[in-house]
Records
---
Amino acid sequence: MNLEIINDEQLIPTARETWIDQLVDYAAKKLDLPDDTEMSISLITDEKIREINREYRQKDRVTDVISFAIEDGEDDDLPNFEELAEELDIPRNIGDLFIAPNHVAEQAKEYDHSFDREFGYTVVHGFLHLNGYDHIEPEDEKVMIKLQEEILDGYGLKR
């Protein structure tokens, strides 16, 4: 997995970036993604994620993670990026996550989880969204949550 982590404001220690990279790599292997699959994670302030949430989701509030999947299937005029990447023999880019670590820390306290568990949950949850998983319909939610828990438990981030 080729993961770019953007942590310009040092919202988490640089050493934690390796942990994030390893977690995403573990999740990618669980989904059997090609090793050269690409994505990014931007670690941003609560104010910035609120701004993005307001602009792109019309929700004027802070959230933990926002995912922008390249292959979200909403625009039928776009090519099938997975097929195109294979045809052109280039890495497949699944999209971008924006995560607000300070909000994740607040949620960890609220839910009585460790920061690692809550941050790992946030990363994996967003990662699954980038890979087409959703939880709008109850049947889809069961699939996504089960896979999410398998990844977190397997990585050692049990409740």
---
Amino acid sequence: MKRLMLLPLAACTLLSACSRAEEIGSVNTNWRLTGSDRVVIEAYDDPLVEGVTCYVSRARTGGIKGAVGLAEDPNEASIACRQVGELRFREPLRQQQEVFTERMSVIFKALHVVRTVDARRNTLVYLTYSDRIISGSAQNAVTAVPVPRSTVIPVAK
């Protein structure tokens, strides 16, 4: 069962539809001689909804382990998704779908962003959370992008 949680991460790595983070800023939070801990701001463009970008802020562990990718980043993350252009749907959306995955440790922890369609309110809702192979975290954040009433969100049946 725990191995199944790695499948979305592996699929995201193999598929070109999965977005990559674009780091757009950061601040140092804990200075270290070998590399500071930081809070980074990353932008993710929704791969199926042109015109929506999600901004995720999260802690990154510095030091030697952080520099070589062996550190485990904290669970905390914040998200704000916004309409940044004309909305275009590349294909019908699933009711709920993982759209971004980013590792937070070598293999044990990942940050996820899931899109849910709120058809009644014509809104795209984005949730961010982290999980581990052994245990997840209840820490999460949510944001929403309202879609104009004149544009119907196409939902796959």
---
Amino acid sequence: MGYFPPSPPPPPKKNTTRTVLIIVGAVLALCCCGAVVGGFALFKTAKNAVGPVQDSADAFVSDLESGNTAAAYASLCPQARSAFTAAQFDQIVGTRPKITSHDIVSAFVRNINGKTTASADAQLRYADGSSETHTLVMVKDSGTWRVCGNPY
């Protein structure tokens, strides 16, 4: 009988599948985290753009609701104020049904060819029981959003 040396140990197994799965999992985790952070940043940016429009529209309609037509008139854009006097505005508001409550249901900001405009939709409820959704067109004047179209 002859002597046979022991066979060499088998070569170590390469776990390429495991390595690939770990790398793919890490990339997916980074993509998901990036999407969450990006979505949050986009939401904050949109909220910062639309928030002041909603606030200005709400203040305007609140002034009308409380009967403070002088404050509502002051929140109109210069073009709207030049179209009629405060007394005429007060008279126009007096001919309309009394607003008893409202909600600002949506707001949009648009930038077209460098001109930024906005609109806000207000759900108005009147003393006679009727209601309507009214769109307030707004422009930015000296850093403040002002109602400049369809004022009540």
